[in-house]
Amino acid sequence: LLNEGLGEYVDFKDSTSLRGRLLIEPNERLTTDLRYQYADQEAGSGYFMPGSADTEENRLPGDPFPFPLNNTTYTIQSNIVGVSSVSFDDYTAKVDYGFDGFTLTSITGWHDLESRNDQDLDQTNREFLNIDVDDNQSQFSQELRLVSMAEEGLRWIVGAYYSDQERDRTLATFLNVAGFQNGGDWSTENAFFVPQAPAILNEQYETRAVFGQVSTDLTDRLELTV
Fold first, then answer.
1. Who has greater pLDDT, 72 or 112?
2. What pLDDT score does 63 carry?
3. pTM to 2 decimals?
4. 146, 34, 62: which is closest to 101 by C-alpha?
5. Is the model more confident about 77 or about 168?
6. Dist CA 145 CA 98 (whole Å)
7. What are the backbone angles phi and psi of residue 179, rounded to the nearest 5°?
8. Nearest one of 96, 117, 115 to 105, comparing CA atoms
9. Is residue 26 within 8 Å of residue 101, measured between CB atoms?
C-alpha cells in the first residue's frame, strides 16, 4: 500500500528468525533437550484509510474538529509512516531421567518479549495526534513431573507447575497544541507536540499448580482413570 502524500509504502515488513536445538544423551537413563528460538521483526503500522479529505468544503456544518469527516475518497493520508517492532527470545530446557519404575521430567522455560508501536493516531495529513506504545513481557516457568513406566496394571502421573510472568506497558499520546493556538495551522513546520498523561500498565502473575492421574485396567476391555 502506498501513502501517496509521502510517496512511501506503508505495509513493509522485515523479519529475522532463528531456531536451535541441542540433544544430549550421556547414558541410557539421562536425556537433556535444549531449545532456543529468536525472532526480530519491523513492519508498517496504522495504515488506515479514514473517510476524510483535506478540503474545507467537506466539513460538516458546525463541526469543531479540525478535519472533515464525511469524505469517502479513502486514501492513506497519514503524514508519518507508522512503525511497529517486536522481538522475543525463548529458552527451554527439558531433562528426563529414568529411575527403576518411573521417569522424572523437568521442564524449564524463559520467555522475553519487547514490542513497540509508533504511529499517526489521527490518520490524516495534518500534524495533530501521535501515539507511541511500549510493551515488554517476561515469563519464567518450571514443571516437575513423575510418570510411571508401567504399560499395564497401575499407571500414574504426578507433578507440580510454577510460573512467574511480568508485563510493563506504556501508551503515550502526543498532541500538537500549536494547531489550536495558530488558528488551525497544522503544518509540520509549526508543530509543537505536548505529551499527554500516559496510560501505564504494570502486571505480575504467579501461577502454582499440582496435578496427578491414576489409571488401572478393570477388565481386558475397560480402563478406569481418575
1. 112
2. 52
3. 0.79
4. 146
5. 168
6. 12
7. -65, -35
8. 96
9. no
Q: Please state, in angstroms and rounded to a whole number, the distance separating the CA atoms of residues 129 and 139.
A: 34
Please state whether beta strands 2-3 and 8-9 pair in parallel, antiparallel, or not at all (unpaired).
Answer: antiparallel
| Cα atoms found within 13 Å of the Cα of residue 70, Cβ hemisphere only | 8
Amino acid at 17: S
Give pLDDT tens digits for 14-29.
Answer: 999 999 999 999 999 9
Give the whole-angstrom CA distance, residue 75 versus residue 111. 39
Beta bridge partners of 132: 118, 172
CA separation, residue 9 to residues 29, 67, 126 (Å): 56, 24, 19
CA dihedral sign, ordered 120, 122, 127, 130: negative
Residue where the block lists cell 493516531 = 121
Distance CA(57)–CA(53), nearest Å, equals 10
- CA dist 118 and 96 (Å) reads 45
